[in-house]
Design goal:
The chain contains five helices and eight strands. By secondary structure, the chain is an alpha+beta fold.
Length: 203
């Protein structure tokens, strides 16, 4: 079991219809008052917010019930086209587990969390090299439009697994299971099976 570290303050939680993975890029249009205030605070302080898959409810309106495991996100690009709008690019950093949560007066969910230490770096085994090669082909085809974060660590098992988890057309719940998977090699095996099913090729 991975070790954890208590986060020293309450983490604002943004519940979304898909999970965020470490190093993954998240593009957001912010317009709800609770998230406008959160965004302004994160920009001002440089602190992250938390992204968690919706377990029940919706992205807009009454606060949704988040999944217990999520990923912190730090804003790396932002613009404010209008006073009541933000456009953000945030990058996933560290997995967390929600211990307690509450809804503030403005409707923003705040949570006491513990950060989940990442697994030790694990080289991509040769039997999974084709997965990295396919990502390289995608980048070559799309160029700068490729939706893949930098630096690109093609020799890192977790990085390759996370990128495929983002790319494959699977349910959010399946992505969440991969997010929670402590062993990237297990996730890679499952990803290869899904890819084989969708392409009709043997794994």
């Amino acid at each position: 079991m991975r070790t954890t570290t208590p986060y020293p303050e309450e983490l604002p939680i943004f519940s979304l219809g898909n999970p965020l993975f470490p190093a993954g890029l998240l593009h957001l249009n912010i317009f709800e008052p609770r998230y406008l205030a959160m965004t302004a605070a994160c920009i001002g302080s440089g602190k992250p917010f938390g992204v968690s898959l919706i377990r029940a409810g919706f992205e807009v309106g009454v606060p949704a019930i988040p999944s217990a495991i999520g990923c912190t996100a730090r804003i790396i690009e932002w613009s404010q086209p209008m006073t009541d709008r933000y456009r953000l690019v945030a990058k996933g950093e560290t997995l967390f587990r929600i211990i307690n949560r509450r809804v503030a007066d403005d409707g923003l969910m705040l949570a006491q969390v513990e950060l989940i230490d990442p697994p030790d770096p694990l080289p991509l085994p040769p039997q999974h090299a084709a997965l990295a090669a396919l990502i390289k082909e995608l980048i070559a085809a799309l160029g700068e439009d490729a939706p893949l974060p930098k630096p690109r660590r093609f020799d890192d098992a977790a990085w390759v697994a996370n990128r495929w988890a983002e790319l494959l057309p699977v349910t959010p719940e399946r992505r969440q299971r991969w997010l929670e998977q402590a062993d990237p090699l297990t996730a890679l095996v499952e990803i290869e099976k899904v890819l084989a099913e969708q392409t009709g090729q043997p794994p």
